[in-house]
Amino acid sequence: ETASQEKDEL
Amino acid sequence: MNIFRLTGDLSHLAAIIILLLKIWKTRSCAGISGKSQILFALVFTTRYLDLFSSFISLYNTVMKVIYIMCAYATVYLIYGKFKATYDGNHDTFRVEFLLIPVVLLAVLINHAFAPMEILWTFSIYLESVAILPQLFMISKTGEAETITTHYLFFLGLYRTLYLFNWIWRFYFEGFFDLIAVVAGLVQTILYCDFFYLYITKVLKGKKLSLPA
């Protein structure tokens, strides 16, 4: 599971 | 930020504004699925909870606030102010058939088993199918007002542009989010039939009517 990346999208 | 994501967000904003203006100006929500609008309000609510916990940019915050306010204003107009014009007899899609699988999927397939992450995943999965009640309603009534087709076109275009945004980000930033991409593909594929009708009919000045 890839780490939860920075959520910068709307 | 890249051109695909910016035009995607603006296309999304255009869709939301077109719908809100259509209901407000015509004082009618005929042909609009209130269920889809409730699902979209739920999508924004579960995805934008980070408004209170993290600041990414002014653009990000402003757009999230606008999306949430417009979504709830639209739901209010449909079920509140103009509920007399709400066509409940044709807005009969069983949303529990969407919500239950989406909740299960969000709990089972996510990037991290943490509340915010699961809410975000739920929101991504829900958004990919949230338009189904609206498309179902159009198939039941057999037609859609032209302004409604423009709303759907920009709404479908936004996630299509996001697919290019993800290609761009993968190539230039090495960014890749399988959950968002797969859900975005499903979401865009659901619009293909509508896109075909929109391009072959509405753009030629005809009314969108489905073979009932």
From TrEMBL, chain B:
One of its GO terms (molecular function) is ER retention sequence binding. Signal peptide: none annotated. It holds the Pfam family ER_lumen_recept. It is a multi-pass membrane protein. The chain crosses the membrane at residues 65-82, 94-113, 119-139, 151-172, 178-199. Keywords: Cytoplasmic vesicle, Endoplasmic reticulum, ER-Golgi transport, Membrane, Protein transport, Receptor, Transmembrane, Transmembrane helix, Transport. GO terms for biological process: protein retention in ER lumen; protein transport; vesicle-mediated transport. GO terms for cellular component: COPI-coated vesicle membrane; endoplasmic reticulum membrane; Golgi membrane. It comes from the Eukaryota. Belongs to the ERD2 family. This is ER lumen protein-retaining receptor. It comes from Paramormyrops kingsleyae.
